[in-house]
Amino acid sequence: MFTGIIAGTGTVLDLAPTDRPGVTRLVIDAGDLIADLPDGGSLAVNGVCLTAIPLAPAASHAAPGAFAADLMGETLQRTALGSLSAGSRVNLERCVPAGGRLDGHIVQGHVDATGTVIAVDEQGGWTLMRVAIPESLAGQVAVKGSIAVDGVSLTVTGVSPADEREPWLEVGLIPATLATTTLGEARVGALVNLETDVVAKYVARLAAVGAARSARTGEAA
């Protein structure tokens, strides 16, 4: 589990297919952030929970602070990690230890979909970012609710009308967020990973199951 409070950023060293069909290996320089990260440990990269695997000592990118993770097809299809390249900066967060502070909100590292930045407006001391989101997520986003954008825990400041065919959400970014995460580099057209609040997912699922059950009951009657 994560909280959406970014511990630091890392730099992509490599992203390339492996000799196993459908598997791509991502190598990142995370610096001191992974000093005690064991093989098999979890790390969120732009909000995606990944499992660290060992780098062979002879590997070209085997250096202190570097780690690798294998990405399967589902991860590449559902997230924006496939658009990374050598030199890309990524948000990093270690998993929360038992008894740790929950400074952001509950983030599972299970990205729901990607969104597209459609506006970045400076507001003086802060920045307003609008993101186009899939229609399937529109019902899981509410004003003053929580959203993880590229792994960053944010408060939703605005949402599109309920009947909007091209839904969107807005978040406010303070200077500290812009300076310590990759969101300060986001431009119109950029893809971002989105994870909605876990409670919203359960509410949406309960409502869908309840509606289906009621429909079946009505048909039987």
UniProtKB/TrEMBL annotation:
Residues 1-105, 106-207 form the Lumazine-binding domain. InterPro entries: ATP_synth_asu-like_sf, Lumazine-bd, Lumazine-bd_dom, Riboflavin_synthase-like_b-brl. It comes from Actinomyces timonensis. NCBIfam families: PRK09289.1 (NF006767), ribE (TIGR00187). It catalyses: 2 6,7-dimethyl-8-(1-D-ribityl)lumazine + H(+) = 5-amino-6-(D-ribitylamino)uracil + riboflavin. Its EC number is 2.5.1.9. This is Riboflavin synthase. One of its GO terms (biological process) is riboflavin biosynthetic process. SUPFAM superfamilies: Riboflavin synthase domain-like. Lumazine-binding repeats lie at residues 1-105, 106-207. It comes from the Bacteria. PROSITE patterns: LUMAZINE_BIND.
